[in-house]
Design brief:
Number of strands: 0
Shape: globular
Largest sheet: none
Strand content: under 5%
Radius of gyration: 20 Å
Helix content: 55-70%
Number of helices: 9
Order of helices and strands: HHHHHHHHH
Length: 233
């Protein structure tokens, strides 16, 4: 077995979560509720009609920075589950992660003079608008295109997944800039618990978005490109 593959279908599902608590998000986004007892990963995936291969690939993506998934091992039937997973992730970011971060940044900046507060809040607001546009594009253009492709509706030369891949923006870059501003340039004399909390949230979101992007780049895009080729035959 590849040494970078951390999990297998024979493992108990609970063992995955105790090995890496970040996988709680993966279970939640697949709508797998806790309380599954001693069930193995394979048993749990069968119960939820999810392929074990897909579930383990995403778990391994989230737990290992060196893991590189093989999209060729997945099937056409896995694509709707990937799209559903990504949609649920978007909802989590928009409804929970970013509002919480925004509120905490606002609270943190109450400690600072008005100019710094205004600049940092504006920086975050611009990022928030940018990532919302990114998600809206995927929700309104990319995912419907994929769903049409799955039922044989081809959009001709108007659109293909390569266009999405080519214009796939790095949603983590500006978040990294925000993190560095807080670490490097806000006065140290104002260091407080809320500042540490904001940084913890940014690191967590940044890591989650990186894994989210990997699912898109390493699984969804190659699988849809293959589906496009098959539909053209």
């Amino acid at each position: 077995m590849d040494k970078n593959i951390l999990y297998t279908g024979k493992m108990k599902a609970a063992e995955l979560i105790t090995a890496d608590w970040n996988l709680l998000a993966v279970f939640e986004r697949f709508n797998i509720k806790l309380g599954f007892g001693e069930a193995t990963v394979t048993e749990l995936c069968k119960l939820h009609n999810i392929s074990t291969e897909l579930f383990l690939m995403i778990c391994n993506i989230y737990s290992s920075n060196s893991y590189r998934p093989n999209a060729e091992a997945l099937k056409k039937e896995d694509i709707p589950h990937i799209v559903s997973y990504l949609r649920t992730s978007h909802k989590y970011y928009i409804d929970k992660s970013f509002p919480q971060l925004h509120n905490d940044i606002h609270t943190m900046m109450e400690e600072y003079e008005e100019t710094s507060s205004r600049v940092l809040n504006k920086f975050y607001d611009d990022y928030d608008c940018e990532i919302r546009r990114h998600f809206e594009y995927e929700e309104e253009s990319v995912f419907p295109y994929i769903e049409n492709l799955l039922v044989g509706k081809v959009a001709g030369n108007l659109y293909n997944i390569k266009k999405f891949a080519h214009n796939h923006t790095n949603v983590e870059e500006k978040l990294n800039d925000l993190k560095n501003i807080i670490i490097k340039y806000l006065p140290g004399s104002y260091t407080s618990d809320i500042r540490m909390q904001v940084l913890h949230e940014i690191f967590k979101i940044e890591n989650d978005l990186h894994k989210h992007t990997m699912v898109e780049d390493k699984l969804l895009i190659p699988m849809v490109a293959k589906l496009e080729s098959e539909n053209e035959r």
